């Protein structure tokens, strides 16, 4: 972070110098004259913007890294939009595209992640009473064959 601070200070000084050159020599050559108080106000505004963006960037760099998808299995969240079967869920403060493992899930309903399908989470209603992390495919008549969701969930649970 110290290197970033030094780089930011040096680049802000160079930006302020560029503003002085443009306002004092560049603009008068095309007939635009900005008085000294205007130049000082412009430089203070640019300095304020630089401090603001530095603080926002520092906060973003201090945040914990995003959760990896395999670690999401078993996490609980809330449906942000109806899952019929696709929709949005909010898990650990992040929005994810998800699909329902079985049935429709209404907005605001608690969900549990049971698997992943590429970059899409597979979820079930938290109060559905299903144990484990396996998803149930209602369209699968042969219950002895695991669904794609079950297979992925089992793979993710292996050490």
How would you describe this structure to a colleague?
The chain folds into 2 domains: 2-62; 69-132 and 145-157, Nucleic acid-binding proteins (OB fold (Dihydrolipoamide Acetyltransferase, E2P)), CATH 2.40.50. Helices cover 39% and strands 19% of the residues. The chain is built from 3 helices and 5 strands; from the N terminus they run ααβββββα. Helix 1 (2-26) runs antiparallel to helix 2 (36-62). The longest helix is centred in the N-terminal third of the chain and has 27 residues, at 36-62. The model is unreliable at 131-159 (pLDDT under 50).
The CATH architecture designation of the largest domain is Beta Barrel
**Beta fraction of the residues?**
15-25%
In spatial order, strands of the major sheet run 1-2-3-5-4
Under CATH, the homologous superfamily of the largest domain reads Nucleic acid-binding proteins
Run of helices and strands: HHEEEEEH
Radius of gyration: 27 Å
Could you say how many structural domains there are in total? 2
Shape: elongated
Secondary structure elements and pairings:
Layout (H helix, E strand, L loop, with lengths): L1 H25 L9 H27 L13 E4 L6 E6 L2 E7 L9 E8 L2 E6 L22 H10 L2
Parallel strand pairs: 3-5
Antiparallel strand pairs: 1-2, 1-4, 2-3, 4-5
Helix pairs in contact: 1-2
At a glance:
The protein is an alpha+beta fold.
Features:
alpha+beta; five-stranded mixed β-barrel; OB fold (Dihydrolipoamide Acetyltransferase, E2P); 19% strand; single chain; disordered C terminus; elongated; 159 residues; 5 strands
